[in-house]
Amino acid sequence: MKRRNLITLCWISLATSMIFFFGFTDEKTLNNFLLTVVVCFMYSFVLAMGNSYINDFLNKRFPWSEATTRRAIISIVSILIANTIMVYFCNYMNFVVFQKAATTEEYFSGKFSFINWFTINIALLISAFLHAKGFMEELKKTSRKEVVEQKLIAKSANAQFESLKNQLDPHFLFNSLNVLSSLIDENPNQAQKFTVSMSKIYRYVLEQKDKELVTVEDEIEFARTYCELLKTRFEDSVDFIFDVRKEDYRRFVVPLSLQLLLENCIKHNFATSSRPLIIKIFSENDTLCIENNLQVREQIKESSGIGLANIVQRYSLLTKRNVFIEKSEDYFKVKLPVLVSKPNEISIKTDTSDKAYERAQKRVKELKSFYSNLTSYCIVIPSLVIINLITSPNHLWFYYPMLGWGIGVAAHGVSAFGLGKRWEDKKIREILEKQNK
């Protein structure tokens, strides 16, 4: 127990002893005052420090964040047993040793059963406060840690996505300038037309490269313009076929994905008038497909690998759906997932920090509600018992609210600590996680 808590406990013990001495002691003598102080300090330190050590021990062996349900069960069992033992010890020392109001046989015969039961309720109240405080502190730490982790995940994903998008600008410009350089020598007029078309296309690249997703319609229109630019260079050596469903136009794909794939088709295949390269862009189920007949050319230098790898990585950051690649002796096909909705941010696959904080906040409210209910029960029921025994000792009616409310508190505890619906949800998540591994 910390020094600050010990000082607070001493002040509470002293204040309690003053109340009992001046309010309930008939003979105001120094001996009675010292006895009252000793007894109050004994109760305070044994019950408070005992529960504190139990709570600290359980925090180390069974942290709330790792096994909430298990910890709750162990806490309930341990505090019931420990507080019963500590209360019987304190009452024995008070009534048998200090006050000599009864013998050992009389004490254990049941004469002090009500006092023991009442004191146990007070001890459980103290223990409930200590465990609630410990749980709140650990939950706060866990929530903060989770929020920080989610922020780091989101920042990492955004940084990775930005890095991938920044590859597109210089990559496209470099390849386009290479094509333009070739055309200047081969056909200056075509080179001039190519320059005009390239300026339009590059404007689209600058507009779309900062977006996570664009509509299929925008990407198809851009692809048509880019295909015209390629036709300017290759003429009859390349042929393009578009067959995309109209209903897919309002869906979404990764920007510049078609341009990169079209560029790959040209880069990795040879094309002549006698053996033209045929590139098809069409819809297939929930994907947008780019397919070309295989006419593999020998690579003079190793490919940079930016195109297809870039698309795959950007899709992996936005959705769980994969980019599929099919290759046979006759054709090469890439299937791009067509997304129905557009995410607001990169971290769609992960819980954002706001959601993590909301979940933590909701959990705290549930547990605060339970501990408030338990605290009220531990205060009100003993008060009702006292009122019942004073007003009508022959008619014990306090059992009804004690049992009824007690069942309600138990049910509340089951709900708060995840033994009901929360346990089912947890198991479902565990099964799904195992299947996804």
UniProtKB/TrEMBL annotation:
The record's keywords, sorted A to Z, are:
Kinase, Membrane, Transferase, Transmembrane, Transmembrane helix
Is Transferase tagged as a keyword?
Answer: yes
Q: Keyword Phosphoprotein on this protein?
A: no
Q: Which residues cross the membrane?
A: 7-24, 30-51, 72-94, 114-135, 370-391, 397-419
| Domain Signal transduction histidine kinase internal region, residue spans | 159-237
Q: What is its EC number?
A: 2.7.13.3
Q: Could you tell me one molecular function GO term of this UniProt entry?
A: protein histidine kinase activity
Ranges for the 2TM domain?
358-432
Q: Which PANTHER family did the record assign?
A: SENSOR HISTIDINE KINASE YPDA (PTHR34220)
Please give the name of this protein.
Two-component system LytT family sensor kinase
Organism field: Chryseobacterium camelliae
Source species taxonomy:
Bacteria, Pseudomonadati, Bacteroidota, Flavobacteriia, Flavobacteriales
